[in-house]
Amino acid sequence: MSASRRRVLLKLSGEAFGGGALGVNPDIVSGIAREIAEAAASGVEVAIVVGGGNFFRGAELSQRGMERGRADYMGMLGTVMNALALQDFLEQAGADVRVQSAIQMTQVAEPYIPLRAVRHLEKGRVVVFGAGAGLPYFSTDTVAAQRALEIKADEVLVAKNGVDGVYSDDPRTNPDAHKLDEITYQDALVNGLKVVDSTAFSLCMDNGMPMVVFGMEPGGNIAKAICGEALGTRVTR
Question: Cα dist. 89→27, 99, 113, 185, 200 in Å?
Fold first, then answer.
């Protein structure tokens, strides 16, 4: 990566793809794709980890009696569907895209190979990572942190629905909760702030990877975050 090129790992939740409903909402995903393509066209190297909560959530399925490992694999397959949908809309928006899957399915995606992903980024392609870590018991938040470290991203960008950053407490239950412009990973973990998976916080903290947690609304926020504008909450070591 040249010194002048910014490289980011964007985490998108599955709920963002469905607009709170089951499946993929084409209007919503198209809007997200246009913002990503616009930012990528400005010279930022963009990699993306997608969730699968609009199809399956392994943890929730396991609570209803399904074996956890199998439920998690179902969730991983949901992320691949989202990755392929995002690829299509990104290409419609003019971006060159590659999907890499942690579970081999060579007819629809490349296998996850970090050096190949980096090469795609250096060539100006957007890389979408699907199938989570390819292992059960890992959230896609944690995968986002791991992928960011492996491709040597400058920071992890976590796009959230319904919240615009990290708050001192749950704003849905505590009206006195206030948004924090900056916080350390240690403070977030000690205070039990669950806006991002604690394993992802720990992984970033231990390896000095900065994170920005921001809201997807209003429109334009994703492009602004990718380009480095100050949004949401910055989490650092």
Answer: 10, 13, 23, 34, 28
